[in-house]
Amino acid sequence: MIILTWIITFSIVVGLGIYSGKSIKSANQWTGGDKSMGAISIGCIFAAWQIGGMAIVGAAQNGYNLGISGAWYSIAGSFYFIALAFFAKTIRTKMPGESVPSYLQTRFDKKTAKLYSIAWIIYGFFYIPIQLKTVSSIISIVIPNVNLTIAMIIGLTLAVLYTSFSGMRGADTVGRIVCIGIYILLIIFVFTNLKRFEGYGGLLTELPSEYSSMTNMPIQRIIAWIFGGCISTAVMQSVLQPLLAAKNPEAAQKGSVIGYFIAAPICFFTALCGMMAKASGASLGDGSTAFAYSIDLFSSPLFAGIIFAFTTLIISATMATMMLATGTIITNIYKTDINPNASDDKILKTSKIVTFIFAYLTLIPAFLIPSDSLTNLFLTLQHVAAAPVSFSIIVGLTWHKATKQAAFWSMLLGIIVGISWMLLGLTDKVEAIYPVFLTTYLVGFIVSKLTYKEEIEYINE
């Protein structure tokens, strides 16, 4: 019954995502470059992107290991949407295209745009497998004894089916459905099953005392999630692309706020799922299967099948947004460097094919990524790859003295410091976002001061 319900549910939703792309005739419609999306659409795409595997499987893992403080992931980790709302009108005014590399090339130079493109493609190559790890833990419960490879292929295929075909319109359709659906299902699940423990207070009596405290999470990690999100996630292609697809600056601004208020509360429910798994007495190792275990243990086969389907889909929606962003960047390289004279039909076809191929290539690193501490691994990768770009985008948009030399070297040295920090294992002591930020912005401002006059003289000549 679980398998049948799961298959029927996700088939309907994915089918709707594919159907929404049947009217796409141009590359701009696929990427969102036609700028036709309203605030609610933007908010749902943002929320589906943010919730994903980390806010469900990762936060439940934190709930299993730490308690209700696992809810901080969505409260703090989604805050960048508020910061994004503040800059939304500026971004929409000064970034007319649909890709970050296009802006970087116009504002600075081709070298900076290429560095961003390379960094993003590498980031996406490792980001998608982390999400695959979370979705495979769900599929392995739905289909007992399924091979890990098959589980990841199933999860990947769900996302790539409507993404490669429907682009931004598919992301809009699926985002709306899964955001509404996952909340309804989790609210029903949590409030129904808290009664088994005689309420929230009864649940806490079955757990260590620190599980009731919101401070049972390192404060520097919470600050890193807020700060890191504002200077890393907020400047990612996968986030800026929906913002740039808004029909006007006001829709972009409202959509950012809506995205926060949809995404922020979700981890209260998923952390509680992890706490229920812990209270049941189950020994789940690192807790990465706590969410799936809890749903399977405390639900009827029919309800479990539906909630597993929506969980699979919302994780797939996160992967889909990343696939769409990466496909857009690779397509941008194709139409600017490889085939500048390509027709719109050719660009659209290339976008779909590139997205499809890249998605399946990410299965390669999926087997190398450990399952323990998925949330921390995900955020470290994000801080290392995305935060170094923030000077070029945030400062580039707001300070006219930021130079092309500063943009390039702040990005490159920030990435090098971040990777070094991660490889040396220092993230357990201090989150990578702090040294990356200091390096990126110090280099950016210093080099700008040193080269701004030189750049002006060159232009005047």
What's the CATH class, please?
Mainly Alpha
Count of individual beta strands: 0
Kindly give the count of domains. Answer: 1
CATH superfamily (homologous) name: Sodium/glucose cotransporter
Helix content: over 70%
Q: Average pLDDT, to the nearest integer?
A: 82
Please report which band the strand proportion falls in: under 5%, 5-15%, 15-25%, 25-35%, 35-45% or over 45%.
under 5%
**What is the CATH-assigned architecture?**
Up-down Bundle
Alpha carbon gyration radius: 22 Å
Low-confidence stretches: 457-461
Give the biggest sheet: none
How would you explain this protein's 3D organization?
This protein has 461 residues and is an all-alpha fold. It has one domain (2-371): Sodium/glucose cotransporter. The protein is 77% helix and 0% strand. It contains 21 helices and no strands. The chain has helices at 2-19, 27-31, 39-66, 72-77, 80-94, 100-107, 110-142, 148-194, 199-205, 219-231, 237-244, 249-263, 266-279, 290-298, 301-338, 344-361, 363-366, 374-386, 390-398, 404-423, 433-460.
How is this structure best summarized?
By secondary structure, the chain is mainly alpha-helical.
List keywords for this structure.
single chain; 461 residues; mainly alpha; Sodium/glucose cotransporter; globular; disordered C terminus
Topology:
Elements: H1 2-19, H2 27-31, H3 39-66, H4 72-77, H5 80-94, H6 100-107, H7 110-142, H8 148-194, H9 199-205, H10 219-231, H11 237-244, H12 249-263, H13 266-279, H14 290-298, H15 301-338, H16 344-361, H17 363-366, H18 374-386, H19 390-398, H20 404-423, H21 433-460
Helix pairs in contact: 1-8, 1-15, 3-7, 3-8, 3-11, 3-12, 3-13, 3-15, 5-10, 5-12, 6-7, 7-8, 7-14, 7-15, 7-18, 7-20, 8-13, 8-15, 8-16, 10-18, 11-15, 13-14, 15-16, 18-20, 19-20, 20-21
